[in-house]
Amino acid sequence: MQKGLYLAILAGLAAQAVAADEAGFRYNTYGAPGLIDLPTARSAPDAELAFTVSHFADQTRSTATFQLAPRLSASFRYAGLNGVRAQNGLIYDRVLDRSFALHYRLSDETARWPAIAVGLNDFLGTGIYSSEYVVASKTLRPGVTVTGGLGWGRLSGVGAIGAPFGDRPIRDLAQGGNVTRNTFFSGDVAPFGGVHWQMTRRAEAVLEYSSDAYPFEDGVSFDRKSQINAGLSYALRPNLHLSVYYLYGAEIGAQLSYAINPGQSRHGGGYDTGPVPVVTTPRMADLDKARLRRDLAADGMTLQGLSRQGARLHVAIANDRYIASAQAIGRAARILTAHAPAGVSAFEITLVENGVAGETFLINRADLGRYEFALDGAGAVRARTVVRRDISRNPARGGTAPNWSIGPYLTTNLFDPDNPLRADLGIALDGRWSPVQGLVFAGTVRQRVTGNLDQATRMSDSILPRVRSDFALYDREGDLDLIDLTAAWYAQPSDSVTTRLSFGLLEEMFAGVSSEVLWSPPNSPFALGLEFNHVRQRDVESDFDILDYDVTSGHASLYWDMGAGYHVRLDAGRYLAGDWGGTLTFARSFDNGWMIGAFATLTDVPFEDFGEGSFDKGIQLRIPVSWISGAPTRAMVERTIRPVTRDGGARLNIEGRLYDVTRPLSQANADASWGRFWR
User: Span of the secretion signal (predicted)?
Assistant: First the structure.
């Protein structure tokens, strides 16, 4: 009776509501758009990345949620639960659970209708949090939002009103990893609802009626007495929220949420030094190549080649400093105005990486003086710039001088049941030398200083060749590690074809030879690649010793630049454990260098043989150091986060794959960052 009255009040309030924007957005205890435990039909700002930690009743949930598109968010959750009762009655003292969730806003709120969203919880995990929902949210007046919805699975434990789509199969804390399609929106369905009140600019109050019966925890880790939850939240900072809750008439809970937006700069325009001014009156009778090389180097660029044909001066440069390739092009053009003789009326600028040439940008010299201070000077220059790809006219001929860098490194081992977070901190020495165009020698040595990776004791139980699952042995053995030591040869047989041949210690676990060819037509969103590798496994000491295991692997790859920063990649072939299959990767990148993606690999290894997790999957992160520091640098922090590391679907980790080399040199990449041409 009370439940029916509560829902009737919510429905009546929603019917009287007026239109509003995305008011009342917050993250719930699952790290998803919601109230306390329940979802809402709201969405975070596009591209927001949020980290949420919540705790109550002997369970802690840590969640990362990314607003992948304006309507779609994806979450990865890691939870530790003490006291869990399986459906067979067996009680587990401790469960560490990894799960994924999706939330999609079907429609926006209007003057008459609420926003509507659907969601899937724990569709790849063990099923502890498995549920689906349809939810609507409506603003009553500024600051007050009501939500009502229908839930399946875990969200149908109390007050079920039927099973419109058939019975729900029983999942008894499975090993996880399988997509449980036959359970989606099946079984009992129950209503839920709640209210969010933005009391002040910083303070919020939340009240909800939950349909979650906590079937695995009730009577073990806590005793559920009510379905009413209440909470207060306070914004310590605009992107940092602290919440406290009273849950199920029995427990006090707390939550901390922190959000960032990879698409937005933390440092405004950055801490770049000012570019040199455009010289409108040529002062040089002849070009001084040594001086030009010195001035380019002072601005973070290496002169790779120089030629002149009539009134055109063509330079090939390696961009060593700027993530935005258009910024390197613009700064090079400014410098050329001070060095080019009076007879030069146009500059041809070609970006080069590892001896590989990208598009050439033909910029009129007069346009630089004409539009330097124009309101849309960058756009005006781009409209008059001609872009082409013609490697036969690439002036790059030489290599680059040896260079090295030394700095800290951090390696992590996540989700070990004995210790979910292990890490090592140390010093890394990186060296690189290109004696001639296209030939690159590179290596990395690391010295561990402190950490606890060597304390991992769990051994692999894999029945496949242990190409990755013995990672703990590599972490434990040796303080001084030779991570890689390679020689690579890059070539361009035609405007659309690039090749790579690498050999040596290719990565921490494998040595051998790797070859690759990439077909990437100019101005095409598609590229095709072929890779062939023959490798042997390295010893766990990460030195020059080689083990007996050897394998031939290789893949055919399709790359698709969908535009607006979205990318799809499909790889099919043979993996390191000898299994055959394919990998689908979806990623979103930003002009500042950020990239967030997810991948899944299915091979001919049965799920039971693969082991925990059933198949390889994970999240990819690339974080530009310049986004953190504000100083211009192309350095990146790159991480691949897997719920569990097994041997099926494992690939080589090779530096300098061709798509990664050629994409920063492309017209599409320059156009995406052309707003920084004058920076």
Answer: 1-19
d(CA 180, CA 171): 9
Sign, CA torsion 650/653/658/660: positive
CA 368 to chain centre: 37
The order of strands in the sheet holding 386-388 is 301-309, 312-319, 346-353, 356-364, 386-388
The Cα–Cα gap between 492 and 568 comes to: 24
**And the tokens for 270?**
């950055």
Dist. CA 73–CA 467, nearest whole Å: 33
What DSSP state is assigned to residue 34? B
pLDDT at 612: 85
Report the C-alpha gap between 155 and 208 in whole angstroms: 13
| Contacts (Cβ under 8 Å, ≥6 apart) of 457 | 418, 472
SS3 216: coil
Distance CA 248, CA 245 (A): 10
Q: What is the rounded distance in angstroms from the CA atom of residue 138 to the CA atom of residue 113?
A: 7
For residue 19, what pLDDT band results from cuts at 50, 70 and 90?
very low
Is residue 103's pLDDT more than 90? yes
Closest CA to 172 of 96, 97, 89: 89
pTM of this structure:
0.91
- Looking up tokens 């880790």 gives 221
**pLDDT of 634 above 70:** yes
Strands 580-589 and 346-353, sheet pairing: unpaired
Are 152 and 187 contacting, i.e. CB atoms less than 8 angstroms apart?
A: yes
| Full set of structural domains in the chain with CATH | 2-260 (2.40.160.40), 289-397+668-676 (3.30.70)
Structure confidence at residue 3 (pLDDT): 40
Identify the pLDDT of residue 179.
64
C-alpha span between 137 and 277 (Å, rounded) = 54
Structure tokens at 84: 């869990």
Facing residues of 317 across strands? 303, 351
The whole-angstrom separation of Cα 112 and Cα 525 is: 41
Please state, rounded to an integer, the average pLDDT across all residues of the chain.
92
CB atoms within 10 A of CB 513: 13
What residues form DSSP beta bridges with 581? 573, 603
Nearest Cα to Cα of residue 500 among 634, 661, 357: 661
Residue 368: both structure tokens together:
């630089």
Say which residues have a Cβ less than 8 Å from residue 31's Cβ, sequence separation at least 6. Answer: 50, 51, 52, 54, 61, 62, 63, 64, 65, 75, 77, 257
The strand pair at 346-353 and 312-319 is best described as parallel
Nearest to 477 by CA among 390, 547, 375: 547
**pLDDT of 127:** 85
More reliable by pLDDT, 32 or 452: 32
In the prediction, which pLDDT does 454 show?
Answer: 84
Q: Are 239 and 47 in contact (CB under 8 A)?
A: no
Using CB atoms within 10 Å of the CB of residue 441, give its burial: 0 to 12 exposed, 13 to 18 middle, 19+ buried.
middle
Distance of CA 473 to the CA centre of its chain: 27
CA angle 255-256-258, nearest 5°?
A: 150
Q: Are 577 and 647 in contact (CB under 8 A)?
A: yes
Token pair for 445: 């040595």
| Mean predicted confidence (pLDDT) in 244-256 | 98
Measured CA to CA in angstroms, residue 455 lies from 411, 417, 419 at distances of 14, 13, 9
Q: What is the DSSP letter of 527?
A: E
Alpha-carbon span 459 to 677, nearest angstrom = 53
